[in-house]
Structures are given as C-alpha cells and as structure tokens.
Amino acid sequence: MTSLFASTRPSYLRVVRASAWYDLVVTAGFATPWTYALVHDALSSLGRAWGLGVMPELDPMQTLYANLMGSVVVVWAVLRIARPLSVHGLLDGIARTLFAMWQAYALAHGATRLLWLFLGVEAAFALAQLVPWWRHRHTDLVNDRVAQAVGKRLDAASQ
Fold first, then answer.
1. Angle, vertex CA 30, rays to CA 26 and CA 34, nearest 5
2. pLDDT bucket at 134, cuts 50 / 70 / 90
3. How far apart are CA 73 and CA 22, in angstroms?
4. Would you say 125 and 17 are in contact if contact means Cβ atoms under 8 Å apart?
5. Is 156 exposed, middle or buried (0-12, 13-18, 19+ CB in 10 A)?
6. Is residue 156 classed as helix, strand or coil in its secondary structure?
7. pTM for the predicted model, two decimal places
C-alpha cells in the first residue's frame, strides 16, 4: 500500500516553507480592500510601464474576490510557515496546479500579460512539490509489487 508520505526530508520541507513565504509576500496585499487598491494600482502601473497591459477597472466584486483569495492564501501560508508538513506540499502543489490552469485560462481570454510572471512561479512550485510525491508513489508501487511477488513465492514454498 502506498504511504501518505512524500518526503519528510528537510530539503522538501524547505520547498514547502519557501512556497509559503512567496505566497505570504505576494498575496498579503490582496487580503484587505485598502491594500488591494494599492496593489491594483501598482500592478496596473507596472503592466503599463512594461507594455504588458493594465488591470481591469477596480470594482467591488473584483475587490471582494481578491480579498477572499488573499485572506485564504495568507492563512494557508502562515500554516505552512509555522508547521510545514509533507502533506502540505502535496495539497499546495495541487492548489498551484489549479491556480496555474485558471491563470492560463485568463491569459487565453485577454487578461494582462503580467499574469505570466505569476503563472511561471505557480508552475515551478507545483512541480517542486508534486514531483517528489509522484516519484515516491511510483517507487512504492514497484516495492509493493515486488513484496507481493516475493510473498507469494514464500507462501508457495512453505506449503
């Protein structure tokens, strides 16, 4: 049976914690209406200066969704900073895969090309946190099959 493992190695847990610090720094400004207005203006200015497009006009629904996302991600980041566990890396990798998919969808539908910066980081952290799980799962499946084959031979020999 495959264990709910991945890796408790310090290097893997450092990746989990690093992704949490990235999230905290990048999304803290999205957590309140007042800070989001500042982030919105800064991103629009940056997009304009780099020729990547500006953010859509600020409105109450956009602010609400930004605040919801920012609040949840900040809490999730603090958990991973305070208590990084390998299962947190698995769940964060899955969440980052979803975020990257939705960012790609938005880019395909005309969102500011500033999103490419965030999409790249999301994809990199998703891979860094999911690949060790995939490798471990593959190793566990091979080990399980070998153990089953050896166990069957031992059972046959004991009869």
1. 130
2. confident
3. 11
4. no
5. exposed
6. helix
7. 0.80
